[in-house]
Write a structure and sequence with these properties.
Elements lengths: L2 H7 L16 E2 L3 H9 L7 E7 L1 E2 L11 E2 L4 H19 L5 E10 L7 H14 E13 L6 H9 L4 E7 L3 H7 L5 H13 L4 E8 L6 H13 L4 E6 L21 H17 L3 E3 L3 E3 L4 H8 L3 E3 L2 E3 L6 E4 L4 E4 L2 E5 L3 H9 L5 E6 L2 H16 L1 E3 H7 L8 H12 L3 E4 L2 E4 L7 H6 L17
Parallel strand pairs: 2-5, 2-14, 3-4, 5-6, 6-7, 7-8, 8-9
Antiparallel strand pairs: 1-17, 9-11, 10-11, 12-13, 15-16, 16-17, 18-20, 19-20
Helix pairs in contact: 3-4, 3-11, 5-7, 8-9
Length: 449
């Protein structure tokens, strides 16, 4: 283990899928303001949609998402009907019929819905929006519960991409996280979706899990590569038992330390590169012909709440309990508790609970952080000029970064930051230097590696 990286690896930093980050959203956000933001959208510009289904049929101990265990289907069916109403309410708040460039179903597990309810909701979306000819339509799924009927329906509904949480194939690790899914089970789901016409497949892998080793994770990479997913996300497990009660089922002493986590991340990355994948940003990998790799080469890679993306839309409209959206005017987040969310929608309200209007400094810092997270380098001075920022506005951030420069993790030149190969895994720490909210925040974050 590199002793310099080891010294930084355990530092807690946000993941920067947004800036400002979610802990800084304001409570009791005014629905009227969100309606105003939606009505101000340019109908000529495509938007992205995110639909959240917080239900899973099985509980995973590692999960930090806001989810509910669906032991019976009735609550899921009720949720689907309410989500249908929210789709219509949101569309009615827009200035006209708009087109969709990206649609993403997340959770939870969206395929906890029945095939008929998924089709009902997709029909409702199509009743109010048009899809761009090259739109990406993506859905997350669980190979433990994906049925042949659902796989076929996903293909019939025009989905172009599906994501699976593979995490780790070692049986000891799987038992420790309560997620048993042998490689053959995952391959069956992948084959069913490809046969149904879903051309692109994503895998999520996780390092830092209980009882996990470098050897087990590298073997998981090799087994995964045989199925040839188009994209692989390699995430560090965020152990936040104070937020996610189910994580209390994982004893702290079973978790690898910072040095072992970093070794796992590095070894898995090397294994993915050796299998022909291209490194994308901090923690994604893609086949060279995948759109994500093409965007990385062109310098058009973006980052949003789903991670790295090719999505260029300025607006992301989130629907469903706890979903987060973004407009050119600011962020919004829906009510988290499904009962309160459902009551708000039933009463005809857009179920927002938090939000944050952008100020110019937010836009400036968001662009700098996004480019650093996506490209590994940024011209903060040039971006500042585009935003009419004061000269050398970046000075305080650069003072913070001098330690990383002295350790060989990045290089600084007038107004510019460039992560070195050695420092690239620590790009979140470099991005945090531009975060004007972080010092005054009491929010707890996960380790940087």
């Amino acid at each position: 283990m590199d002793p310099v990286l080891d010294r930084y690896a355990s530092r807690a930093t946000p993941r920067y899928t947004s800036y400002p980050t979610a802990p800084h959203f304001q409570k009791d956000f005014d629905e009227a303001r969100y309606r105003e933001w939606l009505s101000d959208l340019d109908v000529a510009k495509p938007v992205s949609l995110y639909l959240h289904v917080p239900f899973c049929r099985q509980m995973c101990w590692y999960c930090g998402c806001n989810m509910k265990l669906a032991s019976k289907y009735a609550p899921v069916a009720d949720y689907a009907q309410t989500l249908r109403k929210e789709v219509a309410l949101t569309a009615d708040a827009l200035p006209g019929r708009m087109s969709i460039s990206h649609l993403h179903w997340g959770g939870g597990t969206p395929t906890a819905l029945s095939p008929d309810h998924l089709e009902m909701l997709m029909d409702e979306v199509r009743a109010h929006w048009d899809f761009a000819d090259d739109a990406e339509i993506a859905i997350e799924s669980d190979p433990r519960t994906l049925t042949a009927e659902m796989a076929a329906r996903i293909g019939q509904l025009g989905f172009t991409r599906a994501s699976f949480g593979v995490q780790e194939f070692d049986i000891k690790v799987q038992k420790a996280i309560n997620r048993i899914q042998p490689p053959a089970m995952v391959r069956k789901s992948v084959d069913q979706l490809r046969a149904a016409g879903v051309s692109a497949i994503n895998f999520d892998l996780i390092y830092g899990l209980p009882y996990q080793t470098v050897e087990s994770l590298v073997e998981t990479v090799k087994l995964s590569a045989k199925m040839r997913p188009d994209r692989v996300a390699l995430f560090g497990y965020a152990h936040v038992p104070w937020m996610a009660k189910n994580q209390r089922m994982i004893p702290d002493e079973t978790l690898p330390g910072a040095e072992e986590r970093a070794a796992q991340a590095g070894a898995a990355a090397e294994a993915l590169l050796s299998e022909g994948y291209v490194a994308i940003g901090l923690d994604h990998f893609a086949l060279p012909e995948d759109g994500l790799a093409i965007a990385e080469r062109k310098g058009t890679l973006r980052r949003n709440f789903q991670g790295y993306t090719t999505d260029q839309a300025e607006t992301l409209i989130g629907m469903g309990a706890t979903s987060i959206g973004r407009t050119p005017s600011g962020y919004i987040q829906n009510i988290t508790e499904t009962g309160a969310w459902s009551r708000a929608v039933t009463d005809g309200h857009l179920p927002v609970t938090k939000g944050l209007p952008f100020v110019q400094d937010d836009r400036l810092r968001a662009e700098v952080i996004e480019r650093l997270m996506c490209d590994g380098h940024v011209d903060a001075a040039a971006i500042g000029r585009e935003h009419n920022a004061p000269d050398a506005w970046w000075g305080d951030a650069f003072q913070t970064l001098e330690e990383m420069e002295s350790d060989g993790l990045l290089t600084l030149s007038p107004g510019k930051v460039h992560m070195t190969t050695r420092g690239r895994p620590l790009v979140r720490i470099a991005a945090a230097a531009f975060d004007a909210y972080l010092k005054q925040s009491s929010a707890r974050h996960s380790a940087s590696v």
